[in-house]
Design goal:
171 residues, alpha/beta, 21% strand, 7 strands, 7-stranded mixed β-sheet, 43% helix, elongated, 5 helices, Glutaredoxin
């Protein structure tokens, strides 16, 4: 009888642990902790090794793009980003790429190899929390001149839709 009680308690304890682990996993695997509506200030290191503060970029329409060199979808959207940069940067549009690569050297090598002309910074926890910690790549935030997030796009950017949104904000 005693062995049965111990076995039953062990099974119940194991089941409880598995249920708790499932709930923790489920909570942590949500795409966003909280959908941000504005961009809070953050600091990060650029691929040039300089410290950058987001609020110094205020007043511009900015596309913040989370990306990584190991992400096929991120690589696939670079030509779209280059077209957007080329067409809209003369009108005050900026792109800020946030690299989720393992270190700054990899991010710098990727930027150089892809011929990326916009500012690229390396991720950090404060920065990711300011953006709702999306846990998905690529993800883009279209931000107006008041730091309000106008659009959040997960996955490869739909160029036509993004152009329409950028043009509407730049007017």
């Amino acid at each position: 009888m005693r062995h049965i009680t111990i076995k039953l308690l062990a099974v119940l304890a194991s089941a409880t642990i598995l249920i708790l682990a499932y709930h923790v996993y489920k909570e942590r695997s949500k795409p966003f902790q909280a959908m941000p509506t504005t961009v809070s200030n953050f600091t990060a290191m650029t691929t040039d090794g300089e410290k950058m503060e987001y609020f110094l970029e205020r007043g511009n329409v900015t596309l913040i793009v989370l990306s990584a060199s190991w992400c096929p979808a991120c690589i696939a959207e670079i030509p779209i980003l280059k077209k957007l940069h080329e067409d809209y940067s003369p009108k005050g549009f900026k792109i800020l790429m946030i690299s989720e690569d393992d270190n700054l050297k990899i991010a710098a090598r990727f930027k150089k190899g892809q011929g990326i002309p916009w500012t690229t910074v390396h991720w950090n926890y404060d920065l990711m929390n300011a953006l709702g910690n999306p846990r998905v790549l690529p993800v883009s935030y279209l931000v107006d001149g008041n730091d309000d997030i106008v659009d959040i796009s997960a996955g490869i950017i739909d160029e036509k839709k993004m152009r329409s949104k950028i043009e509407r904000i730049l007017k």
